[in-house]
Amino acid sequence: MQTVNRLPSRRTLLGAVSRRDAEWDGLFIVAVRTTGIACRPSCPSRPARPENLEFFATLDAASAAGFRPCLRCKPDQQAAEPEWWPRLVGVVDSAGSARLSDNQIAAQGFDSVRVRRHCRREYGMTFHAWVRARRLAAAQHRLRDGAPLDRVIIDSAWESHSGFREAFSRLVGAPPGRARGGEPVIAATWNSPLGTMVAAAVDEGVVLLEFGDIARMERQAPTLRRWFHGPVLAGSHPHLVQLFGELEEYFDAKRRDFTTPLVLRGSPFQLAVWHALRAIPYGTTCSYADVARAVNNPKAVRAVGSANGKNRLPIVVPCHRVVNTGGKLGGYGGGLWRKVRLLEVEGVKV
User: Fold this and answer.
1) Range with the lowest mean pLDDT among 48-57, 193-202, 255-264?
2) Gap between the Cα atoms of 57 and 38, Å rounded
3) d(CA 94, CA 27)
4) Residues with catalytic function
5) Secondary structure of 117-165 in HEC code, one letter for each residue
6) Where are the beta strands (DSSP E) in the chain?
7) pLDDT tens per residue, range 297-332
8) What 8-state DSSP symbol labels residue 343?
9) How far from 52 is each of 34, 44, 102, CA to CA, in Å?
10) pLDDT value at 96 more than 80
11) For residue 138, what pLDDT is reported?
12) Are 195 and 211 in contact (CB under 8 A)?
């Protein structure tokens, strides 16, 4: 991927290191001059004095300056999916509608503590909540295909009809009868050069893309459930696979336009603004006033700024290309430093 070298302020970086904030892992490297060690921001090692810290955008830059990777936080290694997780998913799928207890999971050779921590970190829920969500998502697919509700409940081997309805309503936000035409929203994360991004998709297209980990979905889940009448479930979706591949090409300066299907939901004015944003050419910027004129409402500059801030699909709906009149950058929901980096990826001189 293309290297993007601008960093946030030193004060921001020091704050991230002092908190050992894992959300900053992958965004910069902190190096200790007295030891010659380069670390992740979340490194659990004993903190060094602030005056002895040096910051780099990449590990390569830190290595070129003479620092070596920390053996404790291993900034030279990507966090990978545990090798046991696909096997556990296979066990869950083989069990079908049968419930799996902690003892049954342990009997299959899985450490319940590791399973619990992995699900909390990657999916923002317990393992059993993740399994229930998968079962309910499968049930909703059957309902959408026209299967009778009673048959779906029986085949799901739920404890009772009332228990199924209660769990379904709690997860989906609507009872099964009202949500028959809905569908599950599938969410996944992707490690970008600017930090972790979380995205969500339905069969029609991608509905969400924002900076943050899977836990950020909790904030968006009520809106997504209201729109699509389905549970929000961590997993894989073909639209997300396509999106992440195109994003990788974008950051590698090999792609200027995105072809992944998108689903935009908002007011008529917001939709007009977002469509205008998608018309801004790669590597260029325009002002909020320019966008207001493009939507035939030249006096709605403040409203354009508000719609810009409510864009749920940054980068693919390029709100980072909108700046203040006179060239000042204006704001950006993902942090102004990210806006700078995105413009630099596209070759815009900031």
Assistant:
1) 193-202
2) 12
3) 39
4) 319
5) HHHHHHHCCCHHHHHHHHHHHHHHHHHHCCCCHHHHHHHCCCCCHHHHH
6) 29-32, 37-39, 53-56, 68-69, 185-192, 195-202, 205-211, 232-234, 286-287, 322-323
7) 999 999 999 999 999 999 999 999 999 877 778 878
8) H
9) 7, 17, 47
10) no
11) 78
12) yes
Q: Are 167 and 99 in contact (CB under 8 A)?
A: no
Q: Tokens 């930090």 — which residue?
A: 195
**308 lies in a domain?**
yes
User: Mean pLDDT, to the nearest integer, of 182-207?
Assistant: 88
- Residue 65 confidence (pLDDT) above 80: yes
Residue 277's SS3 state is helix
Question: Can you tell me the distance from the alpha carbon of 204 to that of 288, in angstroms, rounded to the nearest whole number?
Answer: 30
Q: Which residues contact residue 159 at a Cβ distance below 8 angstroms, ignoring those fewer than 6 apart?
A: none
Q: Within 13 Å, how many C-alpha atoms sit on residue 308's CB side? A: 29
pTM of the predicted protein model? 0.70
Q: Is 145 part of any domain? A: yes
Residue with tokens 């943050």: 212
Is 4 within the bounds of a domain?
Answer: no
Q: Total structural domains in the chain?
A: 4
Same-domain check for residues 103 and 164: yes
Q: Find the mean pLDDT for residues 218-244.
A: 86
DSSP string, 198-239: EEEEETTEEEEEEES-GGGHHHHHHHHHHHHSS-EEES--HH
Per-residue tokens: 143: 């309902």
Contact residues for 336 (Cβ-Cβ < 8 A; gap 6+): 329
What sign has the CA pseudo-torsion 131, 137, 141, 143? Answer: positive
**Domain termination residue (choose one: 139, 172, 205):** 172
Indicate if the pLDDT at residue 270 is higher than 90.
yes
Q: Which structural domain, as residue segments, surrounds residue 337?
A: 268-345
> For residue 15, which of 52, 45, 42 has the smallest C-alpha distance?
42
262, part of any domain = no
The region of weakest confidence among 199-208, 222-231, 302-311 is 222-231
